[in-house]
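Q: Structure tokens for this one, please.
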Amino acid sequence: MKNVMSVRKTVNRGSLFLYVAITIGFCFATYCALLLSAHDRARVDPVIKMPEERKRAGFQNPKKLFHVAVTATDTPYSKWQCRIMYYWYKKVKDLPGSGMGGFTRVLHSGRADNLMEEIPSFVVDPLPDGIDRGYVVLNRPWAFVQWLERATIEEEYVLMGEPDHIFLKPLPNLAYGKYPAAYPFFYIQPAQNEKIIRKFYPKGSISNVDPIGNSPVIITKSQLKKIAPTWLNISLQIKNDPEADRTFGWVQEMYAYAIASALHGVKHILHKNFMVQPPWDLDIGSKTYIIHFTYGCDYTMKGNLTYGKIGEWRFDKRLYLNGPPPKNLTLPPPGVPETVVRLVKMVNEATANIPGWETL
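A: Here is the predicted structure, written as tokens:
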């Protein structure tokens, strides 16, 4: 806590030089302390060694609600995605099987915007100018540190989501006790990047670093409060390490969360059905809960994928950096996978029903 308070005081004063100096100091202190505790702590792989009571529970805490939290900026690009996410959250939240509690858009722009009345929001400070070095996602762990300390969160668990998440159906609490739930990303490969990861996690089996990011993750507030400052520390360390920065690129903050969790001895239950990512995932599946529309979807009019080349039909969130997509987007041509068709239909439903969609 002392480390995080040091960051807060520095951010409030806006002193970049002092912040950097303190960051280096508390990163090293936190790093050493966590290594000692993490190395000696017994770990259980929750997927391989599964307690019988958890088998019977089906990996779920049906009566323990989680709070949905999404970090965001005040840019038009972030706003329209958050509006769609919140629309579908409200639509499925109270349906049977849901473990969804309250919702907060953690706005790390440092000031209120014009969505405060539409979406429950909590304003936190961004990192000081220059600290993120153009990688705005580094604000994410800092936003969670502030929100967890300053906000009143009634639920015991938190779902860390992102603006480009759409809820397909009511999401149950997939976590179980001290085992958070997470989605395994195929491009998070700790074993293949062991040499670099050892700079930040020098002891213990590399298998302790889960192949995950911080989202989607369902985790207890108490665990996240411990992990978040370390997640911030490791994110800054990776960004300031040329080799790690170059290798991890746009997923470096995801690796930072996985490493921080390992330092705290936290293992995640991996749920492949947590979400689908079109266009690579083709089918929705009966137990899929989220569509993550991070990739562009480009197709010929015959339904053939032309990824990396602009298609005759396309949907890509990056087409709408400066404003929201129009209502009633053209549906994909025949032969396009179910995930893409469902995505466009859900975007169209949301934009047709959100008041002031094109004028806010």
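A few notes: Confidence is low (pLDDT under 50) at residues 1-58. The first strand starts at residue 66 and ends at 72.
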